[in-house]
Task: inverse folding
């Protein structure tokens, strides 16, 4: 096997039993905050619905039974609701709608123990307000783990692979590189070619400028030459 | 081999794998599933080739996704660990507690120390009580133990035994769980919470002595006291263990040390709140019942002895499965 390439992004490599490395895409604080807000809305709805049901049923079970049920409901919503969702569905509804799921740091499906631990630790991650402790923790390690994730050995990752890049519209003539290139350099050129369609003309030229010794041209001509080298490397 | 040819040769197999994965939802077996281990190995080989030959990112992402999903489908039985350790808790919880004996006695001291100190202080000068308890708590205590009977007062406040039980679940287990979690903050959350419970309870006991409702009070608390108080102490031990892993990680990085401590303290993390749950059953359905005081004393004493015997003796001579 070749040595792994230097990372150009936040992907996490995990080696499987077969020796191949899969890549996980950990989710940062912003998208997780959005998922949390969606969950909050979802939970409020569940509270309102269940509360209305309990209120309606008090005629049958009495006012006291109703208040008891509501206390048990609030206990469940605080400590159990996310655990059940994360074990059975892989994510709470809010996370799911943001395209996130919770996995073990090996990429395997979440275990019961891990789900219980990571949600137990919310009580601390939330402190002093609005998940500030959790935010500090996510920013202090490379996998965006809050304290609960560290204790339970879990990650919040994107479910879907990043959407496939559109094929390049630039003239895809192939041209061999004028110099011998290292493996990492070849990988960088191939990725440059792949991501080309997502950048503006000026940005392409800016990124291509330091490679003038390789492309032998500036501006748009340099970009075209680099793309051609990328094509050659990919197809040979 | 160019990427195009690689995709043309293997594409149909990837499509077949994709179709099989979509036909095999995680909950039930589907035809063709027997082929999945082989397909998974082939996908892994394809992914390794694609990485080595530096094929494009979108192909890599597709193979990566297929490798993860075939693996998840194959390993799901092992991964969903139906909590088998819940059954082993009978032996593993006392064992874990004895392993953490120093932390256990530290938490005992932090609970019973302030408890006794507050009772003594309140006996000498009742202003200690007023410094800790607010007026509504004292009114509650008066209502429960000064009036006709605790059950009448509680039924007035909660309406039924079930509602009382639900309140104890929501309130007491919540305290226990927050104690465990708070321990991560360098043990401060756990030790602080244990000591706080000692102070509050000591003040309540002091007030009851001050107001002279002792008999009603003690017959009420006798039944559930063992489970509730020791359950909270065990939660304190679990939290302290987590905090120590942060303070003194030993040879590991702090994150790794925290993960290991959580696994070691797992029987306590489950056991403590479970004891508090047990206490909620007793407190909700037994403590306020109309049984004569002698019976309640006896039951309370018996439960303390049983709990001490369990924590001291159960699980001896067995090894921990790790």
Result:
């Amino acid at each position: 096997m070749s040595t792994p390439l230097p990372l150009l992004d936040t992907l996490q490599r995990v080696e499987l039993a077969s020796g191949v490395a899969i890549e996980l895409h950990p989710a940062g604080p912003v998208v997780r905050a959005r998922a949390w807000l969606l969950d909050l809305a979802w939970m409020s709805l569940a509270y309102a619905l269940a509360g209305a049901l309990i209120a309606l049923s008090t005629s049958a079970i009495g006012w006291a039974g109703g208040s008891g049920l509501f206390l048990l409901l609030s206990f469940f919503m605080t400590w159990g609701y996310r655990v059940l969702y994360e074990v059975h569905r892989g994510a709470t509804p809010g996370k799911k709608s943001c395209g996130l799921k919770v996995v073990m740091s090996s990429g395997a499906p979440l275990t019961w123990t891990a789900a219980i631990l990571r949600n137990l630790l919310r009580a601390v991650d939330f402190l002093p307000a609005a998940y500030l402790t959790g935010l500090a923790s996510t920013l202090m390690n490379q996998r965006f783990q809050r304290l609960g994730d560290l204790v339970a050995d879990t990650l919040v990752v994107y479910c879907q692979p990043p959407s496939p890049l559109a094929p390049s519209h630039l003239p895809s003539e192939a041209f061999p590189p004028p110099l011998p290139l290292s493996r990492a350099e070849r990988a960088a050129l191939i990725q440059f070619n792949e991501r080309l369609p997502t950048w503006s003309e000026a940005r392409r030229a800016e990124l291509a400028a330091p490679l003038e010794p390789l492309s032998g041209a500036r501006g748009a001509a340099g970009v075209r030459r680099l793309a051609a080298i990328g094509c050659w490397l990919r197809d040979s | 081999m160019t990427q195009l040819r690689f995709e043309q040769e293997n594409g149909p197999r990837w499509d077949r794998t994709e179709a099989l994965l979509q036909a095999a939802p995680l909950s039930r077996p589907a035809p063709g599933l027997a082929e999945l281990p082989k397909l998974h190995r082939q996908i892994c080989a394809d992914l390794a080739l694609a990485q080595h030959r530096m094929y494009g990112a979108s192909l890599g992402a597709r193979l990566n996704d297929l490798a993860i999903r075939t693996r998840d489908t194959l390993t799901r039985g092992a991964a969903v660990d139906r909590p088998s350790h819940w059954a082993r808790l009978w032996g593993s919880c006392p064992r874990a507690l004895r392993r953490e004996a120093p932390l256990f006695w530290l938490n005992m001291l932090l609970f019973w120390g302030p408890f006794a100190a507050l009772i003594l202080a309140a006996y000498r000068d009742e202003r200690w009580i007023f410094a800790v308890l607010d007026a509504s708590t004292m009114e509650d205590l008066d209502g429960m133990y000064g009036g006709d009977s605790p059950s009448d007062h509680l039924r007035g406040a909660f309406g039924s035994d079930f509602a009382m039980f639900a309140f104890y679940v929501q309130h007491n287990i919540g305290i226990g769980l927050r104690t465990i979690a708070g321990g991560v903050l360098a043990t401060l959350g756990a030790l602080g919470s244990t000591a706080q419970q000692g102070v509050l309870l000591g003040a309540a006991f002091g007030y009851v002595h001050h107001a002279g409702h002792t008999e009603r009070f003690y017959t009420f608390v006798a039944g559930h006291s063992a489970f509730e108080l020791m359950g909270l102490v065990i939660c304190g031990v679990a939290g302290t263990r987590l905090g120590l892993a942060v303070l003194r990680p030993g040879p590991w990085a702090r994150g790794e040390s925290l993960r290991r401590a959580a696994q070691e303290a797992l029987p306590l993390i489950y056991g403590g709140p479970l004891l508090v749950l047990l206490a909620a059953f007793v407190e909700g359905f037994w403590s306020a019942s109309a049984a004569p005081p002698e019976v309640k004393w006896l039951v309370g004493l018996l439960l303390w002895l049983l709990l001490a015997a369990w924590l001291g003796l159960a699980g001896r001579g067995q090894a921990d499965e790790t």
